[in-house]
Amino acid sequence: MLATALQPDSNGADWGESAEWIWKNYRCHWRVLGDSQSPAMVLLHGFGASSSHWRHNAGPLVRAGYRVYGLDLIGFGRSEQPGLHSKFRLDNRLWARQLAAFLEQIVQKPAVLVGNSLGGLSALTTAVFHPDLVAAVVAAPLPDPALMQPVPRRQSRLLRRLRPPIVELLCRLLPLELLVPFISRTALLRIGLQGAYSRSIGNDKELLQLIAKPARRRTAARSLRAMSVGMALRPRGATAPALLERLSQENRGIPLLLLWGRQDRFVPLLIGEKLQQQHPWLMLKVLEGSGHCPHDETPELFHQELLRWLDLNLGRTSALETQQRA
Predict the structure, then answer these.
(1) What is the mean pLDDT of each run of 10 residues along the chain (326 residues)?
(2) Is the residue at 11 inside a domain?
(3) Residue 3 falls within a domain, yes or no?
(4) In the chain, where do the E strands start and end?
């Protein structure tokens, strides 16, 4: 049931109307803003963030003519934070299944998927495995260690058998129950988060709070451990290179845009340029003055490039562009 807000906020970390949805016995938090008759757009946050991170985007995208949803992926934000003993491995395949169910049960029509970092990888995964639910994919940017060091197509039987217990053991040895609360309550959080931005975030208390709050939940450390194991043990078919190959080969007609901050220190622009060379069918747009979170750091430029590309590829003119032309 939606929160009873007569006029939901269109900006700030608490934008939209909030709700909870149960999927596979997991509690999932989501929010929505805009006319139910408008085309659907789902915003997907990056690692360590939540739907609150789209604080500067929901309002402008609604004014451009979209009904905007934000989903907290399992393990993040206000959604459930399961551990290693979950019946599902926490990786982008699970988040794609969660997103597909969200599109079917809540959105109830194909949507434009816009993801920051991990959200972009989850959007791409959803487009490959559930193409009928996806109108277009925007990844800002597209991260995956496999883009720098591809997973081999074949591994020895011994390595396949030994790798899971070794990875799980190493992750269990990490004192995350001590590290996660400590980092979330000290200046280390700001220092680490600063690496994702080219501008100073020292005075942005809202940003620090929306990242710190989920990390301070008592289940955050166990969920981080489960994600670390899950992402490390993904099969090659769940990595970005394989997903892009499949999307290209099967010619599913789903347009893909990469939005990349020129000053991105986490996932360098060189990776985006390499992807465009390998897959000429996708579009790469470079955003000046931005790091790893262009939607939050340079939102006006982000919206401009996003809406222009959507108008071109979906054959519609956004309300925002119509106003500008008038």
Answers:
(1) 55 95 97 97 97 98 97 98 88 98 98 98 97 97 87 65 68 81 94 96 96 96 92 92 90 89 97 95 96 98 98 71 46
(2) no
(3) no
(4) 17-23, 26-33, 40-44, 67-71, 111-115, 134-139, 256-261, 283-287
